[in-house]
Each structure stands twice: as structure tokens, then as C-alpha cells.
Fold these 2 entries.
Entry 1:
Amino acid sequence: MSKNNNTQKTPILTHLVAGGAAGFMEACICHPLDTVKVRMQLAKSVQKSASGKKLGFAGVGVRIVKNEGFLALYKGLGAVIAGIVPKMAIRFSSFEMYKGALADENGVNSRTSIFFSGLLAGTTEAVMVVSPMDLIKIRLQAQRNSMADPMDIPKYRNAPHAAYVIVKEEGFRALYKGVALTALRQATNQAANFTAYQELKRWGKKVQNIEGELPSYQTLVIGGISGAMGPLSNAPIDTIKTRIQKSNIGTGSAWNRFTTVTTDIYKKEGFRAFYKGLTPRVLRVAPGQSVTFVVYEKVKGWLEVAQGKIKEGEVTIPAPQK
């Protein structure tokens, strides 16, 4: 993150490239866990093996690979990658913008201002990018076609095709089904994420008397801890949102859909159903945030060093040949 007393503002392009690189790496590494999480959340009853034994997240993952092929774990990845660059650019740049606006006259941020900066950044990314991307991803992940069988043709072939079919059959507004819950999830995620990350980072620097950036392995650990805070605090919101977005029923108000799905889950599956997929979600988000923060900090640092050398004349950019 940018330091509070940093007189030279980091260009938006730096946030775009660093955030995009971080998001791409995070998606490629952690997407299979997200697919398992979605399948567990969409299951109306406890998933069991042929012998009747309850399946955990590992068992569900093995079943997906066995029935649909290994590539099935990457269903919806195209939608994620297509949205990850603007998502991360908006997340980090808007967080820095809100953090600057909420800083005191000395440019110092309190824990409260960091929390609200994360809250606003999460809401911003949810409305602008995450909600439609999430809906398309969930529709793709919910399909149970075999990736190994070319004759098993799914309804949605890929992310662009899914977007086209959804808009054609359900209207453009369908892409924003569950947007309020998505915004609430992202807001609480990033509020907890950035607050924990900033506080742990500050504490780590203070204890070790470090002026610059922490070592990458420490950023990895801090990112994992901060990343786990969001899923632990808003699991029911994510489960309800996933059920609403998977449904193709467009009638009724958003509140009616929310109350119907919530009541249906509670009556038919019990209170614990709201926490379905929590384990793979934590295992998806926590290492995902570890990767995100490490790659973001590294790429951002490299870009800032390169920009500094260019400004000082140590590196020259050759003029294009005529």
C-alpha cells in the first residue's frame, strides 16, 4: 500500500498493472477451490460417496474430477480473468483514494479510516465489476457437463456465451441479480481484509524495526491471515448470494428473492447450511490474498523503481524509428 506520508502519489497505471498481475496469479492458482466451494453451496443436501460417507471439500473436488474431468475445476475461470484486472485495479486504486480522503491533516490514517476505506473499496468493485462477473462464473460452475466428453454440450459454453445467453433470456438486469448481497459481501470482505493487513503489517514493521517493506514470506503469512477474516465474518451472505445468482427466476423484487431463498435454506436444510462451503472458501480466499498481496507489493515495487530510474535518467526509452 502507499505510505500515508508519501509525497509522490503512485500513478493509477501502477495500481492497474500490479493489481492485474496479482489477480491473474491468484485466479489461476486458487480457482479450483472456488469451484468446489460453489458446488458445496449449491447442493440442496449433504453430498455423500457411493458408500454413504459424507463428502468434505476434498471429496467433492475428487468427484468433480472423476465425473467431469480435471478441467471442470476451472469452469468459469474465463469470467474471473476477464474481470480480475479491472477488479483489482478498482480495489487498490479506490482503496488508496478513499484512504487519502479519510486521512487526517497530517496524512495519517486511523484504524477506523482504514476500515471504512476498505468498506467503500469493496462496494465500488462489487458494483462496477464483481457482481456480473460472479453471476456468470457461478452459472458456468454450476453446470455438471463432462469436460472430457465433446458430445456433452453445456448450456453455457464459455464466459462471453454465458453473458450473451443470460442477457438474451433474462435481460441485462439479470447480470446484477444479487448485487446488494455481492456489495455487502465485498464491502465486509475488504473492510476486514485491508484493516487486518494494514494492522499486521504495521505491527510487523514495529516489532522488527523495519522501515521499508516486509520480506515476502511475511507478506504471504499476513495476507493469508487477513484474507481469512472476510469469509469467517460473512459466510451466510455468500451462500444466499450464490443461491440467488444461480437461479434463473427473474420475477419479484430483490428483497422477495432474498427472503424466499433465506427461508427456503433454513426450513429445508437447517441453519448450518448457511455455512456450506466455508472451508473451501477460506482455503480459496486466504491463500488467494496471500498471493495477491505478495505479487501486488512486488510488482508495484518494481514499477516504482523503474519509474524512478526513468525520471533520474538512468534508463532511457528509445524513440520509435521512422
Entry 2:
Amino acid sequence: MENSIVKSQAYGKDRVRVVRVVRHQDGWQEIADYWVCCLLSGEQFETSYTKGDNKLVVATDSQKNTVYYLAKTLPAEKVMVPEVFASEVASFMVKKYAHVTSCQVKVTTKPWERMKFDDKAHAHSFYREGKETRWTEAVVTKTSPPSAASLTTIINSGFYDLEVLKTTNSSFVDFWRDELTTLPDMPDRLLSTKVLCQWKFVPQTIEALQAIDYDAAYNGAKRNTLDAFANDPRAWVHASVQSTLYIMADRILNDFSHVDDVYYALPNIHYFPFDLSKFGLKNTQTDAEVYMPIADPSGLITATISRPSKGKF
């Protein structure tokens, strides 16, 4: 007889591809292009794992259909913003099914850019190139299941695969040295990374959360990331990846009061000057002009930066 217990569980439909087009009367059109993952959880699903009892299992195909149903029936403004659409899908699931305690919905998008001709935006034509990927995740949970009268909502958002590089104003010096150290001080170097940035919104009611300007938060997080990387003089004086990460996150927290904390993962994609001394050529330090990119191994710098707790000075 089985004695093991189900410690946690969730199931659903992943990689649901849905595109919503909004057509305005003046001919202007908008597009949202999503990958959606929807996961349901609740104590009453345990018997589907332990007893093979599917009576309460909402088929993953039904979850897929729900995504398309809501993409069509919700007002356009609730579909075109990933955070709002994710929270709407999650709320629908926990309200519709009494035995669903929590629903986690992740929406990923690689936005289309509107074409421009002679500095004029085209009404209905778009292109996509080397952009970072935007994502959001909404988790809606019943406070007192099975009742859906009171719900808690948590929303996290972010982007990844934003590739950046600068050819100066980065250094790595005065680090710990011992018998295993071979890396020399690098007072000036190329710095490149592929940014993963995510931020958590301050928990509020779903109505308050849906009133947030999520596009402004996304664009602001990206703007602060790029501006701190390229232009913030603090990142030149303290030019390690760690200090650059802190400056990026601190700027986001200062600009957006509804953001609770910011997480970054910054792989340090190395570009080392190629040794040309065997050919009688100088290519080190200030003479460096030719570099060899090194894919592996790479450094990896991560941190979560948050607001100070109340009462902490």
C-alpha cells in the first residue's frame, strides 16, 4: 500500500499561443501576441494523483479553450496588457471552479514593432527583430477556499535576453587575491551581458493592481537598465557588474512606487584581448583593440534589491 503523500501539485496547459487584434474604426490596428501557461492547484486534485480519480480534473484542453474565450470576450484593454490579461485568466479560473484553490498564469510575449515610413507609423504593419522577451506571472489564490469571495493576487513581471555591450567604462580591480588567483586587474574592459530583470509589484487588491500602468513600468525598467549601464557615472566609478546591477535596480525602485523588489541575473560575457605578442604586436590594456569572445565559462552575478524595511535606517 502506498504511504507517500502529495506534498505539492499543479497542472494545466503550457505554450498556448494566442494573438488578439484590435481594429479601430479609423483603420488603426493593434496586436498582442502571447504564449500562455495556466496551472491549477487545490487539495481536491490530490486524488487524481493518488487514486487515479479524474472527476474534478478540469481538462487542460478546457483551460486552453478558456484562454481563447477570454481573449475574445474581455474588453480589448484587458487583453492588450499582459499583466491584466494574466490576472483576468487566473481570476476567472478560481471563481468558476469551487475546487480550484489557486491559479498561476504566466504570459510571455516578444512584442511586434510598428513599421514606420517617413517617420510616420503604419496603421497595421509590424516587424520583429532581436528584441528582449517580456513576461508576466499572476497568481490568484482563494483566501478561504472553496469560497471565492476573498482573493489574493500577486503579480511579477520582467524581461530576459536583452543583450548589451559597452567598449569602455567598465573595470574589475582590487578583488581578493590568493595562490589560486591568475586574473590581473582590469582597469578598463569590454563589458557585455544578457540581462534578465524581474520585478514584483506591491500586493494589492486585483482592482488596484489592474489600474497600474504596466507598460510604463516595463518601459521604465528597460530604460533604467540601459541608461545605468551606459550613462550613470556611478557605474563608471564603481564599474563592477555588481555595482552596476545595484544602480539599475535602485533606479527602478525610485521611479516606481508600486514595485516592491527587483531581481537581476547578469551573466558576464567575457571578451578578452587576444595575445598577439608572439607576432610582435601589443594588444593588452590601453593597446587592446582585438578581442576573443569567450562563451564558456562565464561569470554570473545575481541579486534581489528591495526597499528597506520600516524602521531600518
